[in-house]
Amino acid sequence: MLIFIGLCAEAATLYRIRFNHYPDKIRVVLDFDGAFTYNSVESKEEIILLIKGVEAGQDIGNYFEINDLIVKYFEIEKLADQTLKIRVPLNEPVKYNVFYLNDPPRLVIDFDREFLSIVSGGMMADGLEYLKVRKGKPQGQIEAQVLRVDLEKNYVAPALAGSGQPNVIGSIFDFLTPWRPRSPSQGHFYLESVSDICQNNHALAGINGTFFASNGDPLGALIIDGEIVSYPIHDRTAFFLDNNNQPYIDNIFLNASLKITNGPRYKINGINQGRNYNDTILYTPRWGKSTGTNNQGIEMVVSKRRVEEINLADSKIPEDGYVVSLSGPAVETLSEQVKKWEGAQLTLNVISYNTAPQNITQLISGGPRLVKNGYAYVTKHEEKFQPDVAKNAAARTAIGITRDKQLLLVIVKGPSVNKWKKDAYPTLGITLEELAELMKSLGAYQAMNLDGGSSASMVIDGKTYCGVGRRVSNAIIVLPKN
What is the value of pTM for the model shown? Predict the structure, then answer.
């Protein structure tokens, strides 16, 4: 591009460089005391300006500092024949506009604040690529860590915290906060860092999984190696894999019941969780050695498809069976309708809304959905999420599926603590709507949200790449096929 502004007998002087920050841009202005010509060589990495017929004023040095995330500095070189060469390195691939204004003569460069930078951090293992993502906004930046997982070379599965033993930091925190609830001493579910969960399962990498209660109970459905561990909530979105390692994201519900051969069918409305009034809860060995229930219900202990015992409370859970615990009106008639040694058939069918997987082997619920068939589709109201999840920008965790069936495991950093500093370019966190757009930018055809906030964590080869190491109930781990 060559622009002729005018001709002068004498060289004009570049006497000042100034800049200002606006909500949507940075503006840099080069002030001259006369007409000039210039051409520019522009790319995503830098701008080079050759300004002819000018000299640099005595206050113009070889280096002009701006110190912004987008542009750090200008380099100014004085060439022969009254020519100035100005080089502007670009830290991020932003859009910009170079233009001339007259009266007085000046050259203006406007740099947009919005950008998206996706940089590969390399292959962490066969079929496991690490990506670093930065997205610029007028108020600051969004930072994300991404694992792209090739399912031809890796397995992905949910994993539970296993030992219930706190790490050193957790032990100190427990000592200083004795009023906090502890992990159950006898079993049930536990809390561990994602790093510990990965280490215990010899995983290549992992991210935190679904929501959980303070005692470690998962809040939503989990299926691990074909075993149903916990019950869905509000038919929320889930990620799952079939026995051919094909990935899906869809809303699900669970058809669960116990049929007594010569008696009634009992609809189950919970799995491995506390029993409230008018509940029918299924307890499996994942819960622990016994149900831990009170005497305000009645329980059927089933082993080898037969009712072996009928108890009032706290039944032992057989290793080769389960316990169905009832409360409410059904308690009054159960002893009359069900006899010891009667046959019992347990039905547990996971039903997806829009997909038809064969034999689900792994499943982890989350929500809300973020992307459906390539379009942003945030279902936070339909899935009944509270404001702490649905609103505001926060640290987030998400999982996505690309068109070619690769997985995207994504962690977004939360708002920075120093955003009040005037000279800082803060990390903002992300809303669910912004997360949906980010997942699309990464190539997700389907995507859903997972637990976030202080739970958000990514571990690769034993190293925490994002997160504070908070203890969580469960994780999504990556295991090599070979």
Answer: 0.86
